[in-house]
Amino acid sequence: MRCDTIWKDARLATLAGPGLGSIENGVVAASDGCIVYAGPEADAPAMDAAQIILCQGRWITPGLIDCHTHIVHEGNRAVEWEMRLAGASYEDIARAGGGIVSTMNATRSASEEQLIETALPRVDALIAEGVTSIEIKSGYGLDLESEIRMLRAARRIGVERSVNIATTFLGAHSLPPEFAGNSDAYIDLICTEWLPEIASHGLADAVDAFCDGIGFSRAQTEKVFQAAARMGLPVKLHAEQLSNLHGAALAAEYGALSADHLEYLDDSGIAAMKAAGTVATLLPGAFYFTRESRLPPIGGLRDAAVPIALATDCNPGTSPLTSLLLTMNMGATLFHLTVEECIAGVTRNAARALGRLKDIGTLEAGKRCDLAIWDIESPAELVYRMGYNPLHARVWSGQ
Ligand code: DI6
Ligand code: FE
């Protein structure tokens, strides 16, 4: 078999199958940007390649996937955070012009170029840790033009950098001030006008909403899901972050790819997610940064074999985090996940949360050749360290 590149003398965590899929003396071979073989050297077919890379026993994992981010946004909320450190409440901050609305104002006044320019250093921080796929949500524009600008900026990041981008329309993130007291009218508008416009330009791969007391109700969320279904777009949901509105069960009813946050998820939500195959995306960065004390029901999710993903939730208000390695460490220390669960959470299960398990997330023939090559002795080191990056090399689309 003729291929472009062969990585030899490697240890693989293929993530194919239920566990890490560890292989000593492994080989990965790529042709036209796709994996043609990943497995033990002993079982490899006869192959030759233009380029053979000796990995000297380093570990190769699938390229990492950050499946929940708000990485495109303008400005930051460090001053607001200082006020929170000094004891200010969320309401105090909102009255002082802070909160999501302050990011909305900054984002509305930024050009597409500016949005890209301010997001790229954050994207580069993820890329430097072996991330090869990033989901990016809108939701800080909250008017049609600005939501479209955010999504275009997100798509353009995939042109500026060697990374796969999945975009999500999150018009139902927060109520813009011009609709104060009129949230049903806002939801109607995004369902009947904005979403069809955004979908017709192919700007969204999925649709999300924030179902919460400070976000949107279950009934409003359901309208968003129905509109997404009319457009043929899959849904996800910010659910059970601050209270239990049974959003995850609603998302599952609509076949959601994932329900995210989930600190207040209960047994009925777990059962609904299991039945629908909805991924539980946990966001330990937001849990940590907001000093949440309620843990997501890890044991229940594990017992029900609901797939668990981990993501940064990179956003300026509740998780200004741009490290998926640190996210894994928090998944283990704060959420009691195992090493295997953490690594699967940023590879196989994150791919599933994006509806892209067919082409990313594991080292298997036929998938994109997106790899992370690590200077580590064991996979546990990826989860164990805090603030240290053992990436040796990153391969995107075979390059
Ligand atoms: N949940 C969150 O934690 C973020 N959005 C959401 O729906 C908060 C976003 C922000 O404060 O800017
Ligand atoms: Fe979020």
Instruction: Using the CA coordinates, give the radius of gyration.
Output: 21 Å
Strand order of the largest sheet: 6-7-8-9-10-11-12-13
SSE pattern, N- to C-terminal = EEEEEEHHHHEHEHEHEHEHEHHEHHHEHE
> Cofactors and ligands present?
3-[(4S)-2,5-dioxoimidazolidin-4-yl]propanoic acid, fe (iii) ion
How much is the average pLDDT?
97
Oligomer type? single chain
By DSSP (H or I, 4+ residues per run), the number of helices equals 15
Care to describe what's here?
By secondary structure, the protein is an alpha/beta fold. The protein is 36% helix and 22% strand. It contains 15 helices and 15 strands. The strands form two sheets. An eight-stranded parallel sheet has the order 6-7-8-9-10-11-12-13. Strands 1, 2, 3, 4, 5, 14 and 15 form a seven-stranded mixed sheet that branches. Strand 10, helix 8 and strand 11 form a beta-alpha-beta unit. Helix 4 packs across helix 5, helix 6 packs parallel to helix 7 and helix 12 runs antiparallel to helix 13. The model has no long low-confidence stretch (mean pLDDT 97). Bound molecules: 3-[(4S)-2,5-dioxoimidazolidin-4-yl]propanoic acid and fe (iii) ion (FE).
Looking at this protein, list some descriptive labels:
binds fe (iii) ion; alpha/beta; seven-stranded mixed sheet; 399 residues; eight-stranded parallel sheet
Topology readout:
Elements lengths: L1 E12 L8 E10 L2 E7 L7 E7 L4 E4 L1 E3 L11 H8 L4 H6 L4 H9 L3 H16 L3 E7 L6 H17 L3 E9 L10 H18 L5 E6 L6 H13 L5 E4 L7 H7 L4 E4 L5 H10 L2 E4 L1 H6 L8 H6 L4 E3 L13 H10 L5 H7 L2 H6 L17 E4 L5 H5 L6 E5 L4
Helix pairs in contact: 4-5, 6-7, 8-9, 12-13
The structure holds 3-[(4S)-2,5-dioxoimidazolidin-4-yl]propanoic acid (DI6) and fe (iii) ion.
